């Protein structure tokens, strides 16, 4: 069962959203009406996905995200709001939210946003994509003496690649990088896809060829 925490200071909206989401028999929603309630609940209970209203009294959704990330960094957070998020978009992205969904979204859109977050994929309105700030490592691949834009990996993927090259298993990598084993496994799948390889050994060889990790990291 996928456990979801929804924080919305409008009880009727929260209950309506809960009803829509729970039409998916694999999902169960807990609704609270304040950020303080959410913080207290998260001290003793874990959830698979968190959904925060952006505009709430006392502690808004952005500040709640910042506080929760410090202790629940691997739990995806979706901003769920009826307001325009454009003025806050870059700040929210930098706060590491996993996506955005409107309070006017259909049941299918809600379910899609949740399932994407669970798989490490972000749902972002097309109109806001141009605002997205990225800090990825980009690699130029030389093919037949022609330079083309190649693989793009982020800092976490680079760190995981370095630990893989040292011969560490998923559990060891998770401990070193202070992330969950599930996060390691998901990122390895992404890395394999980006490098077009099928194994850790092939990933190491390809990463070395592309210069994604220093040669001395290899065992």
Task: Using brief descriptors, characterize the structure shown.
alpha/beta; 219 residues; 7 strands
Helix content: 40-55%
Q: Which consecutive residue ranges, at least 5 long each, have pLDDT under 50? A: 134-149
The best one-word shape is: elongated
- The oligomeric status of these chains comes to single chain
User: What is Rg?
Assistant: 20 Å
Order of strands, main sheet, comes to: 2-1-3-4-5
By secondary-structure content and strand pairing, the structural class works out as: alpha/beta
Structural notes for this entry:
With 219 residues, the protein is an alpha/beta fold. The chain is 42% helix and 18% strand. The strands form two sheets. It has a five-stranded parallel beta sheet, sandwiched between helices. Strands 6-7 form a two-stranded antiparallel ribbon. Strand 6 and strand 7 form a beta hairpin. It is elongated and about 55 Å long.
Task: Summarize this entry quickly.
The chain is α/β, with parallel strands linked by helices. The protein is built from 9 helices and 7 strands; from the N terminus they run βαβαβαβαβαββαααα.
Write the layout of secondary structure elements.
Blueprint: E1 2-7, H1 11-21, E2 27-32, H2 35-42, E3 49-52, H3 61-71, E4 77-81, H4 89-94, E5 99-102, H5 107-118, E6 137-143, E7 146-153, H6 155-165, H7 170-177, H8 181-195, H9 200-210
Parallel strand pairs: 1-2, 1-3, 3-4, 4-5
Antiparallel strand pairs: 6-7
Helix pairs in contact: 6-8, 7-8, 8-9
